[in-house]
Specification:
Elements: H1 2-8, H2 16-21, H3 23-27, H4 46-66, H5 69-75, H6 80-88, H7 107-120, H8 122-133, H9 137-142, H10 145-156, E1 162-165, E2 181-184, E3 190-201, E4 208-218, E5 225-235, E6 241-243, E7 257-268, E8 272-273, H11 279-315, E9 317-318, E10 321-322, H12 327-355, H13 362-387, H14 389-392, H15 398-405, H16 415-442, H17 448-462, H18 469-473, H19 480-504, H20 512-540, H21 546-572, H22 574-592
Parallel strand pairs: 1-4
Antiparallel strand pairs: 2-3, 3-7, 4-5, 5-8, 6-7, 9-10
Helix pairs in contact: 4-7, 7-11, 8-11, 11-12, 11-13, 12-13, 12-20, 12-21, 13-15, 13-16, 13-20, 16-20, 19-20, 19-21, 20-21
The chain binds flavin-adenine dinucleotide (FAD).
Length: 604
């Protein structure tokens, strides 16, 4: 069943210490875990900051003087001069190790550059990600020394281009169900690859591809033949590799997206990445590792849109006043500022934590991807609303961003499946705690300690005294009310998880109406905590923007707490649960009718 595949995404290598310190996972046990988020993570030393500072000007100059995103959008192609200049900037090997020709930037350094790229052109952002964040990332993360030496130098310099080939006509979100096969040749020296991949970024231009295929194998303890996804390095020059025409797309038009066909391609056995049968793990790790950069790119988009909006609102006069003087416009612009603060705070919290070596960042990275891609879409929409007719015109370029941003909610884990990933990972973590509690209840005398602690926690919850001390200790005094509000929501969240787990047990994996709302509450609480942490640091460091950041944080947290309350109420109240069954029955009617199932007002 598909949902189990979603659950499979959580099968990460164990790192119990990091797991127990994860803020997002802690929520599912009703705990505020401050270790990873407070004070606001800052992993770069001065030298690393200086290095990336030096790169900002050349990157911005590239977009202002060499690469023309609007023309590329019209031409649906990236010209050689753009690619050549990007090579000279080192843009093909940003994070690859220096020994193979890369710049070996840390995640947070890359995030700063991703912001710039995002704010100018998402087509080139997708081209770059298709090449390095996913295309050859498997070789960097899981490749052996021989593979790295053979492939990375020509990829990091841009002499060759890479792509990541996972999706197939019948396997999108359910990536484990791919049908491409790679069968060991009789000589035992090659795999023979057959299959079709679709919608591959750089698929029409890549020389080297990370390709995922099912390899037949027998488990040691079984006679039955089974299949397991395996990752391969495939060169176009192996023969038997062809590509379809570039897809005609809604957005990111100058990035190449194409089908790739493999017809009896002979792959040397030494081109398996990692181990045979571990391809799904390789794919999921590549995707998890790259999500932080999407948050940073989206943050760059939003920052640019805020500037465009404010410029227009300050200059446009209607009914005798500048637009910016109207409250309706002020509310929209304030929302853009709040959204940007949250998206940026979350993106950099995740990248910094990855740079600190924290291994449990998958849920946080998924939160960043969902939050940032949906926020960027909403901000684009509101920007166009304020620019109105002007926003609808190509000349202004916002319409290009609206088209381009849309894909970010779909690829590298569609947001709907990532919501399930977030909630199910958390619930799996909470479930382990529940097992301990249930065990303790069977032998109450020898487990008095556990039961007493749980009992105290529950009584506090029931009478509404959440223990906010932990969060208060790490929060600026000016934001202590916010710390108390968040702690209260965390307690309610933990209690809600307990109740839904007791009610549904393992069947919770099928309760998507509930899981989506739990994921939304997780995204909100994590974002509020990231914002609280960043604003506290701004206050304690006396930043010139500290007061503005304090107002942003308290407003965002006030609104966020209301959303959390709403989402938690949704999953508990009987009336709402009845509404959920109504959703199913309405869909059934529409499905049976193969379209809208009502009688027309005119009855014809
Ligand atoms: C421009 C572009 C570039 C791309 N680049 C690449 C690339 O470089 N390499 C690559 O391998 N792929 C690439 N893709 C493919 C992309 O990753 C997939 O489109 C994506 O994984 C979603 O798959 P799908 O489109 O088949 O949607 P489906 O999986 O069919 O999903 C359809 C909808 O149903 C939802 N859904 C699916 N399963 C569930 C469930 N269990 N419960 C609830 N809802 C569910 C999804 O969230 C989605 O909203 C690209 C796609 C595009 C459009």
């Amino acid at each position: 069943m598909t949902i189990n595949r979603v659950r499979l995404l959580s099968d990460q290598p164990p790192s119990s210490r990091d797991r127990d310190d994860s803020f997002a996972l802690g929520l599912y046990r009703g705990k505020v875990k401050t270790q990873q988020l407070f004070p606001y993570p800052d992993a770069l030393d001065d030298e690393s900051k200086d290095t990336v500072k030096l790169m900002i000007d050349p990157f911005e100059k590239y977009f202002r003087e060499i690469h023309d995103p609007s023309q590329c959008d019209l031409d649906e192609k990236l010209p050689d001069k753009s690619l050549q200049a990007l090579k000279e900037l080192g843009g093909f090997g940003i994070q690859a190790p220096q020994e193979y020709g890369g710049m070996q930037l840390k995640n947070t350094q890359y995030a700063r550059l991703a912001e710039i790229v995002g704010s100018f052109d998402l087509s080139i952002a997708v081209f770059m990600a298709g090449h390095q964040a996913i295309g050859y990332k498997g070789i960097v993360l899981f490749g052996n020394e021989q593979q790295k030496q053979k492939y990375l130098p020509s990829l990091t310099t841009g002499e060759k281009i890479a792509a990541f080939c996972l999706t197939e006509p019948s396997a999108g979100s359910d990536a484990n169900s791919i049908r491409s096969t790679a069968v060991l040749d009789e000589d035992g020296k090659h795999y023979i690859l057959n299959g079709n991949k679709i919608w591959i970024s750089n698929g029409g231009i890549a020389d080297v591809m990370t390709v995922f295929a099912q390899v037949p194998f027998k488990k040691d303890d079984s006679d039955k033949q089974s299949q397991a996804v395996t990752a391969f390095i495939v060169e176009r020059d192996f023969g038997g590799v062809t590509s379809g025409l570039p897809e005609k797309k809604m957005g990111i038009r100058s990035s190449n997206t194409a089908a790739v066909y493999f017809d009896n391609v002979k792959i040397p056995v030494e081109n398996v990445i990692g181990k045979v049968g571990e391809g799904f793990k390789v794919a999921m790790n590549i995707l998890n590792e790259g999500r932080f950069a999407m948050g940073a790119a989206m943050s760059g988009v939003i920052r640019m849109l805020v500037t465009k909006t404010i410029e227009h609102a300050k200059n446009r006069v209607q009914f005798g006043q500048h637009l910016i003087e109207y409250q309706s416009i002020q509310e929209k612009i304030a929302q853009m500022g709040l959204t940007h603060y949250a998206v940026e705070s979350v993106a950099y919290a995740v990248s910094n934590n990855m740079d600190r070596g924290i291994k449990e960042f998958q849920v946080e990275a998924a939160i960043s991807k969902v939050l940032s891609s949906e926020s960027a879409w909403n901000v684009c929409d509101e920007c166009i609303q304020i620019l109105a007719g002007m926003g609808f015109m190509r000349e202004n370029q916002v319409e290009r961003f609206m088209r381009d941003v849309r894909i970010y909610r779909i690829f590298e884990g569609a947001n709907d499946t990532l919501r399930l990933f977030i909630a199910l990972n958390g619930i799996q973590y909470a479930g382990k705690n529940m097992k301990e509690l249930q065990k303790a209840l069977q032998q109450p005398i020898s487990n008095l300690g556990t039961l007493w602690n749980q009992g105290v926690k529950r009584s506090k919850r029931l009478i509404g005294i959440a223990d906010s001390q932990e969060l208060l200790e790490v929060t600026a005094p000016e934001l202590s009310d916010c710390a108390k509000m968040i702690t209260q929501r965390v307690e309610e969240f933990g209690a809600t998880i307990e109740r839904i787990l007791l009610k549904h047990g393992r069947n919770i994996i099928d309760q998507q109406f509930i899981l989506n709302r739990i994921a939304n509450a997780t995204i909100d609480i994590y974002s509020m905590a990231a914002v609280l942490s960043r604003a506290s640091t701004a206050i304690s460091s006396n930043l010139p923007t500290a007061d503005h950041e304090r107002v942003l944080a308290s407003t965002f947290i006030d609104e966020g707490c209301q959303r959390v309350e709403h989402n938690l109420a949704e999953v508990l109240r009987k009336r709402n649960l009845e509404r959920f069954s109504a959703y199913s029955s309405i869909t059934n009617e529409i499905s049976e009718n193969e379209g809208v199932a009502t009688t027309r007002p005119l009855r014809f």
